[in-house]
Structure formats: structure tokens, C-alpha cells
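JOB MANIFEST
job_type = single_chain_structure
chain_count = 1
residues = 132
[input]
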Amino acid sequence: MKQPQIIPALLGLAMATAISSCAVSPETQAKMDEFNRTIPSCSSSADCGAKWDAARSWTEENSSFVIQGDSDTRIFASSTLTTQSGLGVVVYREESTTGFNIVVDIECFSAYGCSNLWDKKVEFNRTINGIR
């Protein structure tokens, strides 16, 4: 007995839906590209110090959590509890071939998601890159 054609069609539709739901929108991809293209860097002690201070201030203003750890290479203002809600901010100073990169990671603590994560990451880069 020949199987009805509707089953393969439904399976194909289900697979296409599953695959397309994982795709990133062009708007989000543009923000991701801008973030990666504009990661702040520094090379001198004065430049790195000024940008690190600005990163600390930005973290204090934009994280839902207080700074719990602050060193020369990491600023941690996030949570380890999944029961808390808000945006967590972690900033790293990473060595590069020309000095250091200052990289932000923004964490979402919300059951409903955080639609502005990439906006915040790009805002961080713009703010730190504006320090002279």
C-alpha cells in the first residue's frame, strides 16, 4: 500500500520551520557584525586605564547587579542565581597582538528573554571607543 503524500510534505514543513527558527534576522546579524568589528582596544598604560575606568562606569550604569568582582582583567557585575532577573555585565581585558582588547559580555536573566542584548553590546563598544 502506498503511503499518502501528505506525511512527507508535513515532515518537510516541520523541518523547514525548525531550521528557519534558528536563523538570525538581518538586523541582528548587522548588530553582531558591528560588535565584532568595533571591539575596543588599547595599547598604552594611560589609554588602557582610561578605557578600563570607562568600562567600569558603563557597567555600573547598565548592569542590574552591583559589581561583585573588579580586577585589572575582569569586571563582574552579574548573578549566579537564576531566580534573579535583569542584565548582567562582565567585561574582560584580553591580550592582543597590539596591546589589549576590552570585551563585554551581557547576560540575560529573564524568563521572557532580553531583546536588547546586541544593542547594549554595541553601545558599550561605542562608549569605550569614544574615550580618548
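[summary]
Residues 45-62 form the longest helix (18 residues).
The chain has four helices and five strands.
exit_status = 0
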